Structures are given as C-alpha cells and as structure tokens.
Description:
alpha+beta; eight-stranded mixed sheet; six-stranded antiparallel beta barrel; 30% strand; binds zinc ion
Amino acid sequence: xxxxxxxxxxxxxxxxxxxxxxxxxxxxxxxxxxxxxxxxxxxxxxxxxxxxxxxxxxxxxxxxxxxxxxxxxxxxxxxxxxxxxxxxxxxxxxxxxxxxxxxxxxxxxxxxxxxxxxxxxxxxxxxxxxxxxxxxxxxxxxxxxxxxxxxxxxxxxxxxxxxxxxxxxxxxxxxxxxxxxxxxxxxxxxxxxxxxxxxxxxxxxxxxxxxxxxxxxxxxxxxxxxxxxxxxxxxxxxxxxxxxxxxxxxxxxxxxxxxxxxxxxxxxxxxxxxxxxxxxxxxxxxxxxxxxxxxxxxxxxxxxxxxxxxxxxxxxxxxxxxxxxxxxxxxxxxxxxxxxxxxxxxxxxxxxxxxxxxxxxxxx
Length: 364
Ligand SMILES: [Zn+2]
C-alpha cells in the first residue's frame, strides 16, 4: 500500500525537469498538490515555497527539502546546432566523464545535447559547457543528464534526480496522509531553491527571518551512501553533516520516536549516523541558531557520480529505505509535542543515591 503510493507520486514527480535557479515546474506541481489537500502556500521573492498544513501561528515542526538537482541552464540560444550552458551542482568534468544531456524547451519536445568542451566561468559561479544539440535550445532552458526519470527494480528506484526529489516526494506523501486521515497536527514544509548551487534558498529564508525562531527545523535529504551507512539498511537519523552537528535533543527525540516505531513494527529499520558526505540545509539553520535535526535516505551514485568507474550515471535509492523514511516522518508528526517538551527538559536532573559501601550514584 505504502509502496504503491510512493511509486505513484514518484512516477509523476520525477518526470518534472528541474535545475538550480530553475525550479518553477516542480514548484507549480507541489503548490497544486498541496492546495488540493487543504494546505495554504506562500512563495517568497527567491522562489522558495512554504506549505502550511493547518494553522501556522504556534511553534511547530518545519521540514526542509530542496526542489533543484545538479543540472544545466542554457546560457544562449542554439545557432547551427551549437550553444553553451552553465552547470550548477557538485560534479566536475575533471573527475567524471560526462553523460548525454536532455534539454526541456518550454512546450516543445526535449532536445538532445552533448558537451564537447568545459571551462570554469567564475562570474556565473559554474562550469560552462559547449554543447552540440539536436534541435533549438533557448537561453534559460533547463538541461538534465539524460537518464530515465523513473525506473524500478526489485529493491531500487533509479532516476536522473533522486536528490532531493525523494525528500520532496516523502513530504508530499505526508501531506496526503495527514489530509486523508484528518490529522490535526499543524506543521510546515519549506521547499527551497538553488540548494545545489550554494544553499541559496535557505540562506535567503534565514536572512529574511521568515520562520518562527521557536520552530524545530528537520531537513529531509538523500545523502551519499557511506561504508558505515549503507543503502537498504534503513532511513538515517542524521546527527550531522560535513559542516555541523545538529541539536542533540532533537536527534534524541527522533531516536525515541524511531525506537517505539521499531518496537511496534519489526520491518521498520533506521540507522543513527554522521552523514558527512555533503552539507544539508539544516547546517544553515543551525548557523542562524534554529534547533535542527535531519533524516536522510542513503543515495547511490550521489550527484550522478559513479565513484568507481568515474562515469556519470542515474542516482538510485532503496524503495524500502524510502518507505521507512515516510513511516518515521509520519511518526514524528504524531509525536510532535515531544519535540517541544524535550526542549524544555533538555538539562537532566540527577538524584543522588548512596550505596551501602559509600558509592554515590547519580540517576535521572
Ligand atoms: Zn545534492
């Protein structure tokens, strides 16, 4: 049942083209999906979309996910089957052989392209690729690595864009689930822009102080599979990333929720790990003194990079890890009040207990 729901949303969602600074199609899909499920939405000047499930006045959980994926923006129109494009996101032509590219001109069939030359463009803060194209690409069009958007195996979901579409999909599942089951707990979701180019959407939100400082921020991301954090071993409670350690009391509360979920459902798996293969948006919120936590789904071919073969390939995630992720996010919402009680009670109080040989024990 959960698997069918996940795959149904994923099939539609993953077909939508996106790139850093070009998230408008994904944003329109999310806005429509959420408004049909009784949410209110707001788009800020940067293009970040906030979705509010129920009332948004009291301190609450705010999940953060990003709508972009490493990809291309055409920097000029095709002339005689040639044009150029900026590439944004952590990937380098010096380390990985490029794959074919697909561009998505508005209202027209996609156009195939191949990169023939790469150079750094410091002003645009991007790699600039010279392209040979099979048709007309216009300035500003979105390009993505040309892999199927949605391919299912027995265990894995393969896509040109798992990072962070999987995070977005899990939160759309949550909104659908809460609306269908008349769950009253308010929460919000921040769908951000240009994360892959430099976490710019989140920086804008934090700078604008548009989120209540009392809110607890939880980042939901795919994250590079590590030897200590394997794909298919369960959703990860991410204690930190390459930059920060998140708020310990928030992490502890997520672990308490995960343990009770596991006690009632032996099929559910989770891992508690430091995922330092990259930086997530919780780090920016931490720098602005928000209380933060994070979940991640282990990701294969992180940023379309096969690190062994040095090739550019589709990303993949375990379907079971995604389902575990959804289960944990729903349980977090069911137990939202624990996050705010936990904050008040974060300093332990010890009772002194004396043993008969003069031992002094300090127990909670
Ligand atoms: Zn990423």
